[in-house]
Amino acid sequence: MSPTQTAQLMNGTGLARRIIEETAARAARISQRTNVVPCLATVLVGEDPASVTYVRMKRARCAKAGITSRHVGLPATTTTAELVDTLAALSQDPGVHGILLQHPAGEHIDERTAFEAIAPEKDVDGVTMHSFGAMSFGLPGFVSCTPGGIVRLLDEYDVDPAGRHAVVVGRSAILGKPIGMLLLAEDATVTYCHSRTADLSAVVREADIVIAAVGRPRLIRGEDIKPGAVVIDAGYNPGNTGDVDFDTARSRARLITPVPGGVGPMTIAVLLAQTVDAAARQLGVQGR
Ligand code: NAP
What range does the record give for the signal peptide (predicted)? Predict the structure, then answer.
């Protein structure tokens, strides 16, 4: 591709809409067959405005897809032990099929301990060690939603990671690490970068597929994008800005996700789809 051409945009909004429509149809079939409506429990500690908005958005999408949601709002003073008790009770509750703990849960909370209180069969956000292990071994289970969404987006645009060099910038447990494992499972050669990586630009320049998962506005510069590369920007920073300098990157990339409208909508779509999968399994009916 010549540098004067611009990349094709990867439309996450459109694909997410289709996944949610398909999920709504599956939810309706389950409800008809079992008289039970799939249910997602959302748990929020405190009232951080961004988290409140995220939870509200997720619940609104659930409602549109025929999934009920049960919200558990806990005070900011909630301890790790109290949060664990709440999550353990929801894990035992047959009326709840999926559990989402909105994170960050607060600095005083031991988030790993809290996540581990979610029963694996209800871990529709894919945050437990069990889910990460199953995903890494290629066994059935739930994937972390944003990485799961990225894989579906790549598939939609016929990007086959096999034999490609994928550079993942970021190594968080919910995003960087799992997307690297999913790409590895699809036979990509994966390099992880992080805050201690020496000469990030040099590594990114070698990438056929760039996954930006950092949370630093425009950290990845267009001049470092290999011509013809596929660029996935999972970053979401204030002012609707991604981790990639979109304007310069799009003149070198072959495919690129916009921010917003790329990875973001896919995350919620995967959450809803996995909630319906969980309900189908727990109710013993066909989920497809
Ligand atoms: P995180 O837990 O803060 O992790 C950030 C990662 O970036 C860390 O691994 C960190 O390295 C690395 N990093 C920081 N500065 C760097 C630098 N200068 N060069 C290279 N690597 C650097 O963040 P996260 O939860 O993974 O989220 C990352 C971004 O994705 C955020 O913008 C977030 O809003 C967005 N996000 C979007 C969605 C969605 O639905 N679209 C979902 C989740 C997250 P160290 O490990 O060395 O500290």
Answer: none
